[in-house]
Amino acid sequence: MLDHIGVPVSDLARSRAFYEAVLAPLGYGVVMEVTAAETGAEAHCGFGAHGKPSFWIASGKALTGCLHVAFQAPDRAAVDAFHRAAMALLAPDNGPPGLRPHYHPNYYAAFVLDPDGHNIEAVFHGPA
């Protein structure tokens, strides 16, 4: 349904480092950057795969409240690696890797908080 989403962050460099570390195990990385001069406003960093940015962060005033973003993982091991990468960065744990059968029997996910306190999830929907 969605082509891409953009989220303003309080510290672009800090958030970029966080997302580079936690999205790498899922197969995502920085695929595009746009400077403030190019946009006429804020700098942007786009994450995705195969040259297509789908998740953007931008400098500026961070959102208030809690945003929830779930990233598809290719398997359960990638969910585990996502969580380990976040823990290595001392990100707050918001739900360790494991099954969430209240969603469906194969829903395997982990949740962490990003530098601005948003709930970031890695999820795999297939069987073990």
UniProtKB/TrEMBL annotation:
InterPro entries, per the entry: Glyas_Bleomycin-R_OHBP_Dase, Glyas_Fos-R_dOase_dom, VOC_core
SUPFAM superfamilies reported for this sequence: Glyoxalase/Bleomycin resistance protein/Dihydroxybiphenyl dioxygenase
CDD domains, per database record: VOC_like
Domain VOC: 1-125
Superkingdom assignment: Bacteria
Identification of the protein by name: Glyoxalase
Organism encoding this protein: Prosthecodimorpha hirschii
